Amino acid sequence: MEDFGGGHPPADRRLLEEALVPLSLRRRRRGRAGTTDGEVESSRQTAEVNTGHTTPPASPPASNTGQNTPAGSQGVRSPGNSHIDIATPAAHGSRSSSVGQEQRPETHPDPAAARPQHTSAKKMRAGLRIASENIRGRGAARIAGSAKWKALADDIRRFKIGIMVIQETHMEEQHVEEVHRYYKHLKVINSSLLDNPTGAGGVALVFNKMLTNWETVESHVIVPGRVILARLTWHREDKLTVLAVYAPTRRPENHDMWEIIHDCLLDDASDLPMPDLMLGDFNFVEDAVDRFPARMSTMDAPAAFQRLKRLLQMSDGWRTTFPSEVEWTWRNHDRSAMSRIDRVYLTRRVMLTTGEWKTELSGITANDHSRISVEIVNPNMPVIGKGRWTMSQQLISDNKFVLKATELGQDAQRNIEGMVQSGMRTAEHNPQMRWSQLKTALRDLAKRRTKELAGIRAAEMAKKLKERDGIKARLRDMDEGDERTEAVADLRKIEEAIQDAKKGAHDKIFTFRMAKQWAEAETMCKSWFSWTKDRKPCDTMMALRRQGSDPPEYATNSKDMAELARAYHDSIQSADLEPAGNQLEAAEEETLAHRWWGELSTHRK
Where is this chain compositionally biased, Polar residues type (predicted)? Predict the structure, then answer.
């Protein structure tokens, strides 16, 4: 990445294997790759660093779950002259455009586009979650000892955040190297202030390697330590351009920064793409309702920013979605001042594909900024499930689950011992079947208990959030006085309780992870190999043609596609095992002829 500026398988099986190998793996792709602050500086770009990976990550990444550029179109013959097709842009119309462009080439009919649209983005792996948070510094001299970065890296992995914009990074090149060394699932593009890189300011984009095409990122620093423009390939040939900002707190520098961005985007010499979304810490509000107490200051709604918004044709996404809601993303320690200075602006075209807006206390910084996030959905992508289920390690210490699981195991053991002693064995009644039934019962028990525990935690958190929402609603209409002072104190109390709950969840995860690392680090085991390998996103199979369908019909649901692939695999396993009568006789005659000739040759010798 660089900154912007012996024996062979049967023919049918070989064709299938070639079709299932992503095109990106068969050809070489060229990718192009604290305290608050001071004044806006002259341009300088902090170079990103490519480092080797020699140390186990502090938070082991999960399995690959992301998307990449889809594979090329392949047709595979199957028995019966039917075939299974992998639908790709080559077969259904390719697109080479930016997500936010107003003029977009019309595509050919796509089978994925014809399916019913899902209202919930939770089931759509095609959704890309983008977030922003002011982390108020590294939290430690080195990244290895930073609890903030440990929690941040874990949240990006667990909550499937594709792109994270962070402010007040206080990082230099050596810190970026450390992030890449310890957290292999992250790619950081950072820009720091020239005069005080580790003590103030700084903005960065953090890419989740498992969910994004991070190798295609092109970046340009517009204002060092303040503004980064990054562009990457999303799905197929679509481009997504993100403008990450951290505005100064001083009015002159803040207002001047928007002018710099405006002029830089219009400069033909810079040849920068127009962003599809702009997010970060703006350090001002556009409406009095976004401050507590509700008021406008000379810092707010600068004319230069309004001019930039008109150029980009963007709007405040959260306010457009929730026009009458009250929310604050920043608060001081005693809650005497709060505001919604962290925002996401989007073009109209991108706005139509958004959902699941969130403003939440992450637990990374206390009494400061909240995390904001939004999910952008590509409706033309296939429906992809949540992946393989695994039992939560928390169940191991749950007494109710352990007692019930022990009871099930003892019952199965008695049954198996009885079968062995009696010698009675049938196809339906044998130790293997009883063992399989036990595993199924344990899995069902684990799922039920996990839902119960998750429901308890969710109910407790929902109660806290509901109480917080009620206090916010009261504060909106309150005048100064003892009643408002009491409500502010209640708000601080409930927000600290939410932050403590988030921190407690992080601590439990890290305790288990540290024990696992202590036991398995630098050993010949699956975990160690997983921690030390590079993270690459998976290619997405867009659709599969149903065998024998005429006109062609396509499956776009991952479960349906898996079933089609399974059926095809089963069919080629049984192909030609029982040849027709004439073929069988011919094969027997040929075999006997070879045997007779071999015996005759031996006799002559």
Answer: 43-53, 64-81
